[in-house]
């Protein structure tokens, strides 16, 4: 559900424009029919405070519900592991493949997995940027007319998605996640 929401929201249209858009150039935040200006940051702060309290409340009532089902790190790790399982096979098949000598088949299988991971990561980075630049502008600028900042954020977010969901996986939760630190509080 969270990924459908993340990947789908930029494509929703509302009154002839993107339904969810944080247009930094125009200094307007569009949330369906609501238009927020920079001086409305108070409402954003209030929303963030309510969200934090809700997260603490749900954690106290239902445990690590957020970590298990809604955390982007967990969801992307599951997606990447699903891709890995489909391409390389289950755990025992992957271990056997890793121990096998490098053959053309092993190179193709490993390259296919990483190619799918990279495509998914770059699409994730592109989707993030569509929240700040209208989708129509980005699509018309593809592939060679994107601004430096747009390219930077696509590759940065895509690179972190690739690295964290593909390689670091649960180590991100154990060592880097601030939510795990204040969960005990």
At a glance:
This protein has 185 residues and is mainly alpha-helical. The chain contains ten helices and five strands, in the order H-E-E-E-E-E-H-H-H-H-H-H-H-H-H. 14% of the residues are buried.
Topology:
Blueprint: H1 2-8, E1 13-14, E2 17-18, E3 20-23, E4 28-31, E5 34-36, H2 41-62, H3 65-70, H4 72-88, H5 91-99, H6 104-130, H7 135-141, H8 148-168, H9 170-176, H10 178-183
Antiparallel strand pairs: 1-2, 3-4, 4-5
Fraction of residues in β-strands: 5-15%
Strand runs, count? 5
* Order of helical and strand elements: HEEEEEHHHHHHHHH
Helical segment count: 10
Strand order of the largest sheet: 3-4-5
Query: What is the general shape?
Result: flat
Characterize the main sheet: 3 strands, antiparallel
Unreliable sequence segments: none
Distance between the termini: 29 Å
Q: What is the CA-atom radius of gyration, in angstroms?
A: 20 Å
> Averaged pLDDT, please?
89
Which secondary-structure class do the elements indicate?
A: mainly alpha
Give the fraction of residues assigned to helices: 55-70%
Describe this structure as you would to a colleague.
- By secondary structure, the protein is mainly α.
- 70% of the residues lie in helices and 8% in strands.
- It is built from ten helices and five strands; from the N terminus they run H-E-E-E-E-E-H-H-H-H-H-H-H-H-H.
- The protein has helices at 2-8, 41-62, 65-70, 72-88, 91-99, 104-130, 135-141, 148-168, 170-176, 178-183, and strands at 13-14, 17-18, 20-23, 28-31, 34-36.
- A three-stranded antiparallel sheet has the order 3-4-5, with no helix packed on it.
- Strand 4 and strand 5 form a beta hairpin.
- Helix 4 packs antiparallel against helix 6 and helix 6 packs across helix 8 (148-168).
